[in-house]
Amino acid sequence: MTKRPEISRREFVSSAVSAATVTSLPFGKLAGFSGNNPTPLSTAPSSAMSSEWKDQGVLNLAKSPYAKLRNVPVHAVTIASGFWGARRQTNVEKSVPSMEKLLEANGRMDNFLRLAGKSNAPQRGPVFSDSDVYKWTEAAGFALQSGDRPDLRANTDKLINEIVAVQEPSGYLNTYYVGDRAKDRMTPEVQRWGHELYNMGHFLQGAIAYYRATGDRALMDAGIHFVDGFLLPNFGPGPEKKPIFSGHPEIELALIELYRTTGDKRHLELAGYILQGDERIKVPRHGYVYHFCGIPFTSRTHLEGHAVRAMYACCGATDYYLETGDQAYWKTLNTLWDDLVNHQMYVTGGVGARSDGEAFGDAYELPNFTAYGESCAAIGNMMWNWRMLAATGEAKYTDVIERALYNGINSGMSLDGTLYCYRNPLAFDPSSGDHIRNPWYDVTCCPPNLERTFASLPGYFYSTSTDGLYLHLYDNSLLDWHLEDGTRLKVLQKTNYPWGDTASITVTPEKPSEFAFYLRIPGWSDRTQVTVNGKAISGVTAGQYLALRRRWLPGDVVSVKFDLTTHVVEANPRVVDDYGRVAMQRGPLVYCLEQLDQPEGIALADVRMNVSQKPSSQFHEEFRGDLLGGVVVLNCVGAVNDDSRSRSGLYFRYNRETSKNLAAKLTLIPYYAWANRAGTPMQVWTPVVNG
Ligand code: FUB
Ligand code: ZN
Fold first, then answer.
1. Largest Cα–Cα distance in the chain?
2. pLDDT tens-place string over residues 423-444
């Protein structure tokens, strides 16, 4: 089923708003905002379905007993002009609308309309086609959480009506297993491959995002109908019920978010049952590996099998831990996370080394040209680490989130927001015939996944804890929310991150208040300087949250100076594809070489990186406003291996003397921006030459 054909925001108070201005802004309503949600002064939002729907974050952890951190709602953070502001504007103005049209043009909506007798078009697309529409609905829901957009809302309402119209009285909903195929519904084999539960997991996530944006329960009620009316009475433990197997993990995390929304414990229990694995459905061993479900999650010892499945399973399992505190889950999650960061993750935060099975490889198996690195898998990685962060408040998870977000996820969408990568390799040669960015894939899981991720981004900037506020991500933005004790608070970030090395953060509680402000010190920033109202703070450690505990007064200013020195990164020598090679990283951004930026006549394959100097003197940073939407490029003098250009054969006697390296001026661009111009070779890892 997952085998594919070959290859393959409210408006912001302008960033000019000064710290002085923000301190004078009235609480509850922001001047210059057309925001839809003046936030109440309530404290912990209820997880029951009430008017507090609008204050639930990407995850509603308000009552999750094992969550150290709680999400703030998407609407509470306004991302202004800047790195993510531009990306998010493109997303909501171009990507989301163009994807809606593509979903229609490619029969995804006809699949629903046909069942309502409103279309004669035959069923189109793979078994998981419904999920494309649901993920788009989730993107629309998150976009609407940032402020009303009447056209988007009207279109989404129409689409939702068309979806719910074809839900069967039983609660079942699927546009593929209908007619002659209806007899196959939820058979063990179809649970394995048919994606019925995967589709409905995305349905629930879309419904929850839309509910949290609008309070409209239509889709949510349909989702509850599916779960309460169809799933719970028929599937689960006990002889009177049929076995259940998710096939492609997704329903687990969706059911737990539904539980967080409804408070109905059966939703959590069913998720737990699925995570445990139903022994009545037997699949071959390689099936448990590939599907990453069907056996107890707690029996897993490493990441394997289909990468998106594994990442979503880890999300569901972490959600389960956040609700239950089950230590066996926690142990396994930590084991798997260690495997992720020590053996399985690309420097871009991408995961899934193998095209075959879209899968994790063996430890250290991280090829570059053939890297799969599916956009959905990198998103799954970010989603999982967001949950691990919520459980612990540890910055090592935020470092992974940032790595994936800025690199292996961000690369998935073209700068103009209309083309998408399914694979995100770390080396590329267009002569392979591979079209890496496309507007549409028949397996179009990644594009709407990227759209929902960018639309939800404000929800990832901050969290609250019982003792204060955590700042995770840096960009021009305004937080307008409250602490867990109900104290209203604004935090204004002004920064040119990730290009510039400073951030000015104005903290404005409604009244002088004592709390801890946890500032994330990125793992890559070796020497970060932090001041509060100009006074230097000691104990700043890379890769940790800096706890700034004090009595905060309205208008207090935290200044951060990051160390943006370019890092020359090497991989564990067991990563054979990176052996003898280096990658460059500046701040959160991993860099790459594209051949078209190099002097004419130089083949990327012949380029060598000279690492004999200190990076600070080797790499000359240059902001190029004209290039790729405005990027800092890294210029350096590298080398070109001259001999290899004249060689025509395959094997030669080794002779040190023949390796002549000529100096060459090289230019690196941020990886996320690759393949946005003419097709040209690209590489992240470049061989090293000394001297
Ligand atoms: O199977 C549904 C989605 O299609 C998977 O998550 C992707 O890997 C793609 O195969
Ligand atoms: Zn995908």
1. 78
2. 999 999 999 899 999 999 999 9
Q: Which atom of ligand 1 is nearest to the CA of 4?
A: 10
CB of residue 419 inside a 6 A radius of ligand 1? no
At 38-69, the pLDDT tens digits run 222 222 333 444 558 999 999 999 999 999 99
Spacing of C-alpha 574 from chain mean position: 28
Domains of the chain: 39-460 (1.50.10), 463-561 (2.60.40), 567-687 (no CATH)
Ligand 2 center from residue 290 Cα (angstroms) = 16
CA distances 79 to 90, 380, 474, Å, are 13, 23, 10
The backbone torsions φ and ψ at residue 558, rounded to the nearest 5 degrees and listed phi first, read -100, 125
The alpha carbon of 248 and the centre of ligand 1 are apart by a number of angstroms equal to 8
358 C-alpha to center of ligand 1: Å?
8
For 496, counting Cβ atoms within 10 Å of its Cβ (0-12 exposed, 13-18 middle, 19+ buried), the class is middle
Lowest-confidence range among 55-69, 569-583, 629-643? 629-643
Closest ligand 1 atom number to CA of residue 309? 6
Looking from the CA of 270 toward its CB, the CA atoms found within 13 Å total 31
Q: Is the CB of 2 under 6 A from ligand 1?
A: yes
Alpha-carbon distance of 378 to 292, in angstroms, equals: 17
348 neighbors 403 (Cβ within 8 angstroms): yes
Q: Output the pTM of the full model.
A: 0.93
